[in-house]
Amino acid sequence: MNLNYTEEQELLRDSISKFCSSDYDFETRMKAVNSESGQDKELWKMFAELGWLAVPFAEEFGGFGGDEVDLSVVFEEFGKAIVVEPYLANIVLGGGVLRRADFAESASYIEKLVSGEVQISLANYESQKGYVLGNIDTELNGEGLLNGSKSTVLNAPNADHFIVFTKKGDGYSFALVDKNAEGLTLSGYKTYDGFTSGDLVFSNCKPVAVFEENNALEVLEEVIREAIVCICSEAIGAMEKSYFLTVEYTKQREQFGSSLSKFQVLQHRMVDMFMETEYAKSFLLKVLATDDKDEKAKLTYGLKNQVARAGKLIGEEAVQLHGGMGVTQEMSIGHYLKRLVSIANVFGSADFYLKKYSES
Amino acid sequence: MDLNFSKEDQDFQSEVREFLDKEYPKHIKAKMDNGDDLTRDEVVEWHKVVAKKGWMGHSWPVEYGGTGWDATKRYIYLRELALEGCPMFIPFGLQMVAPVIYTFGSQEQKDKFLPRILNFDDWWCQGYSEPGSGSDLASLKTKAVRDGDHYVINGQKTWTTLGQHADWIFVLVRTSDTGKKQEGITFILVDMKTPGVEVKPIITIDGDHEVNEVWFDNVRVPAENVVGEEGQGWTYAKFLLFHERSSIAGAPQMRRAINSLTKRAEKIFHDEKPLAEDPLFISKVAQFHLDLDALEMTELRGLAAEREGKGPGPESSLLKIKGTELQQRLTTLALEATGHEALPYGGPYGFENQEVMAPKAAQSVASKYLNFRKVTIYGGTNEIQKNIIAKAVLGL
Lengths: 360, 396
Hints:
Chain B: It comes from SAR86 cluster bacterium. Chain B: Its cofactor is FAD. Chain B: Keywords: FAD, Flavoprotein, Oxidoreductase. Chain B: One of its GO terms (cellular component) is plasma membrane. Chain B: Belongs to the acyl-CoA dehydrogenase family. The complex is a heterodimer of chains A (360) and B (396). Chain A has 360 residues and is an alpha+beta fold. Chain A is 52% helix and 14% strand. Chain A has 3 domains: 7-114, Butyryl-Coa Dehydrogenase, subunit A, domain 1, CATH 1.10.540; 120-215, Butyryl-CoA Dehydrogenase, subunit A, domain 2; 217-359, Butyryl-CoA Dehydrogenase, subunit A, domain 3 (Up-down Bundle), CATH 1.20.140.10. Chain A has helices at 7-23, 26-34, 41-49, 68-80, 87-100, 106-114, 216-252, 264-289, 293-322, 333-345, 350-359, and strands spanning 120-123, 139-140, 146-150, 161-168, 171-178, 184-190, 196-205, 209-211, 254-255, 258-259. In chain A, strands 1, 2, 3, 4, 5, 6, 7 and 8 form an 8-stranded mixed β-sheet that branches. In chain A, strands 9-10 form a two-stranded antiparallel ribbon. Chain A is globular, with a radius of gyration of 21 Å. In chain B, the strands form 2 sheets. In chain B, strands 2-3-7-6 form a 4-stranded antiparallel β-sheet, with no helix packed on it. A 3-stranded mixed β-sheet of chain B has the order 1-4-5. Chain B has helices spanning 7-23, 26-34, 40-53, 71-83, 91-104, 107-118, 233-246, 251-265, 279-307, 316-338, 365-371, 382-393, and strands at residues 124-127, 143-147, 150-161, 168-174, 185-191, 197-203, 209-222. With 396 residues, chain B is an alpha+beta fold. The radius of gyration of chain B is 22 Å and the shape is globular. Chain B folds into 3 domains: 7-89, no CATH class; 124-231, Beta Barrel (Butyryl-CoA Dehydrogenase, subunit A, domain 2); 248-393, Butyryl-CoA Dehydrogenase, subunit A, domain 3. At the A-B interface, strand 6, strand 9, helix 9, helix 10 and helix 11 of A face helix 10 and helix 11 of B.
């Protein structure tokens, strides 16, 4: 048994951690959040130069050949600074399909993704259709035209291309659609956790390519599972930072002639926050260290449930222990809560994954 | 024991329903049902409708223009309003400063302020908390110094709800630094238009502007605006806090909200079946309803005690704790049910005027969840409420 990260992984963690503490303070983050695109394009270039965008791609595509553990390391560090740059959208979701798909042009798109030249979003969820991945209405018709809609497409307003999960005949496919394609309408918006997202409507829209005609659902399921591991790692980073900030705050906040941290009832609450973070970490390690595909899938569903519950508890307690200051926009702690409850609910709720866990 | 209303009470219930049917302004109802925010004018309009009917002073004694209703009638009245989805009364004048004025104030203060509160001519707000004095309210530092017929106030208050709309503020100020910190606190009424009063917005995590900082820079206030005696403010403040706590349980509003969520869940799909048929969801809703039953019954017990002349005491902390916990459970349940549809956000950095695909009802769910984080903090944190129960009820 070995539960250690490799030396390369520790180096990766250090470099991201250093970046987050020296170049991505709360003010920088909020500047990105409040900008029209919701991201800092200069930072994205820097991510590319540092090689972070290459982490999960094979070396033949200019990547690092990293795996899920490497991604988990990246996201855990991002979570500590609640980074909003579109890594999940491009590298894990859009790039995740390209990495796995049997698609001749994957290599050229991946190269541009890794160099930061293009941004690619995955469009699979639809409004009022829930989280069963095959439950969609969007369809590619016999003439090769796309009709339907997709909702909450992460980073949609900044995407150059969309990978659209669609029905085709009796099965599913991915359709690659350019942002300027005729018959595509985009509505962009910010989301409550500070990210940028959008809705897409396709009306006889012609994709530039259609691929993975036999296996699209399986590919999508794998991509979403990997994304779950990533956002759960991010949540764990955010939880760790949340209890840390809370401990610090209660040490310096004085009421009734003593610091809040001296009150035993509050100490116990912070101990609970710490414990829940550690248990979530343990669950994550179990997922990362499991090789069997079916077992790993089941555990990933379990992780989503565990992290949803722990994240919500820790985020809410952190705000409560900060008192009135905790609910202000100017303090970072409330923004951790927003990201944690968003992570708890995207791709399906704790209950949804509890059921999947028990059914797997 | 009997939980049924008497014939008289049932008639009264019909009267309230008839009033709402006829007088509750349709445009306000439409906005409320839609979950939209009201403008200041609309809030005032609603209060004036109630004032015209003579029902504003539902908890006041008759001699000050109150309805003189017993606890049951008051309960029926507030419940019907809540079930109809009416806007909450702005409590700062009606339920907070007014009882202090008619209990401890001078005749001049009663004559000057109470009729205007009853008619909602003045919008009141609260100047209690300070940046360094939250749970430990008695450590407040805002200073008032006597200068002839006036007091001169300097300092800063915070978390003043809807202070941006207010005409008057009731303020706890320090008039003496000697003795215990609870001594030397004075309760004073300040016209918001007085030179030196400045309101600065605080934006909360839901993106809303509801609370404010209120700054006092050499604000001169006539000495006749002190309520009761100088240095006795802490007694009045505690009296007021008990009133505040018993009015924020909000059971009928929650009943209405859980029913509307359950209805909405018939059309929400997480997997193949509608959420309303999901056993996990059903169990949470059932659990919520029965906890709400217990809360409502506890509220009724409080009202019954009040009818027997026992004013609200530390027991109101019970209602505050459970009521706010249930409010948060409700907004959490709504957020979980709504899932990714709750993501689009129309807050200050949302893209203006963009069409969003998510259903209308989904769009305010996240803001509401975030907004309701405050309820276990304001009016005395729930931790402080537990301290009060431990000390005053359990004798610990």
